Amino acid sequence: MNPVDRLRHHVSGAIARGEKEAIVERRMNATEKIRATLAYPSTSYWLKEAIRGTSHRDQVDAFRDATILAALLEEYLNELHGV
């Protein structure tokens, strides 16, 4: 299983286990998801700092940068794992 699929599997498993802090809980709005992600014990320090850092930025620019970063990391991981 490649890393992107592993992440999807992890998040799906959290929801299946009924973890209230699962970051993709569909009944939460975006602000609640951000708060839950920051409070979730398994969220990395790096991600928490990145989220906190966006509060002082233009949200469109932050979104664009995050989208670019996600695409680059996905491509890099797929390259590393021969996917």
Helix content: 55-70%
Apparent shape: globular
Portion of residues in beta strands equals: under 5%
- Tell me the series of helices and strands, N- to C-terminal: HHHH
Q: Quaternary status of these chains?
A: single chain
The domain count comes to 1
User: Which ranges are low-confidence, i.e. pLDDT below 50, for 5 or more consecutive residues?
Assistant: none
Largest sheet geometry: none
Gyration radius from CA atoms, angstroms: 14 Å
What is the residue-averaged pLDDT?
80
Q: How many runs of DSSP E, i.e. beta strands?
A: 0
Distance between the termini: 9 Å
Secondary structure topology:
Layout lengths: L2 H14 L13 H10 L5 H10 L4 H22 L3
Task: Give an overview in words.
By secondary structure, the chain is mostly helical. The protein has one domain (3-80). 67% of the residues lie in helices and 0% in strands. The protein is built from four helices and no strands. It has helices at residues 3-16, 30-39, 45-54, 59-80. The longest helix is centred in the C-terminal third of the chain and has 22 residues, at 59-80. The N and C termini lie close together (9 Å). The model has no long low-confidence stretch (mean pLDDT 80).
